[in-house]
Design brief:
6-stranded mixed sheet; single chain; 27% strand; alpha/beta
Length: 259
């Protein structure tokens, strides 16, 4: 069993696979698979937050954007957003993670997967134990402030900079979006993602809400798709319209481009 940490409340969202082909249906919190013979690009939508904050409307919006632009979408929703998809990030041009996230003391930013520390796991138990022993995997509980008290909800396996530094490998030139609180508040996490192969990283600086992120995410994904040949230009446009990308809590959506 992994030790449990406390994370600040954050955000996550819905995931599944899409294309123009008929969908293979399953439960709402399961992976959904679509197939397309040719993909202009491939996107991962990794959404463990759907366990607590499902948003099917958002999912349909993302489907539409990806399908209309000739892309393929691999989406993992709820408990299906485990560790296995994170071991194959090098397949994707765009990676969007919708999850609980927060800063853990001086150790930096972490986001939650859809897996319980007690299991079951979607990768071999021995690998989970090895990664946990090396500090690559931890356990955390999103913390919610209620009348001054910190109340912990469900426990999840969480990952931070060490996972991207020692385990994850990204496709060269990939764009990574982490839709959660504080996802742009830790330079070490951002550096680890960029060093792993990404050309651009986008996140939220400060505390935000699921609804605020959901409102911004479709426009953000569309902007990234339109500038996939030059992601840094997308970040420039983010700064131009930045006033529209501030959550009610004051959290600001921004990004970093690898020079």
């Amino acid at each position: 069993m992994l030790p449990v940490l406390a994370l600040a409340s954050a955000i996550v969202y819905t995931v599944y696979h899409s294309s123009s082909a008929p969908m293979m249906h399953s439960t709402d919190n399961a992976m959904r698979v679509y197939s397309r013979s040719l993909c202009a690009y491939r996107m991962l939508f990794y959404d463990p937050l759907a366990l607590e904050y499902p948003n099917q409307t958002l999912l349909r919006q993302i489907e539409y954007i990806v399908n209309e632009s000739g892309g393929c979408l691999d989406a993992y929703i709820g408990e299906e957003a485990g560790l296995e998809p994170l071991l194959h990030l090098d397949k994707y041009d765009i990676i969007v993670i919708r999850a609980h996230g927060g800063i853990w003391d001086g150790r930096g930013f972490y986001f939650a997967t859809g897996l319980s520390p007690q299991g079951p796991y979607d990768i071999p138990v021995l690998l989970v134990q090895k990664l946990a022993k090396n500090g690559v995997l931890e356990a955390g509980s999103p913390a919610v402030l209620s009348e001054g008290a910190v109340i912990s909800s469900s426990e999840y396996i969480i990952v931070g900079a060490l996972f991207f530094k020692h385990v994850a490998r990204l496709k060269k030139g990939a764009v990574v979006v982490v839709a959660s609180c504080d996802s742009l508040n830790d330079p070490r996490f951002v550096e680890a993602v960029l060093t792993a192969g990404a050309v651009a990283y986008i996140g939220w600086m400060g505390k935000t809400t699921p609804s605020a992120i959901d409102d911004m995410l479709p426009s953000l994904i569309k902007l990234i798709v339109e500038h996939l040949d030059n992601p840094c230009e997308a970040l420039t446009n983010l700064k131009i319209i930045g006033v529209k990308l501030v959550a009610p809590t004051g959290a600001v959506l921004s990004g970093v481009c690898k020079e």
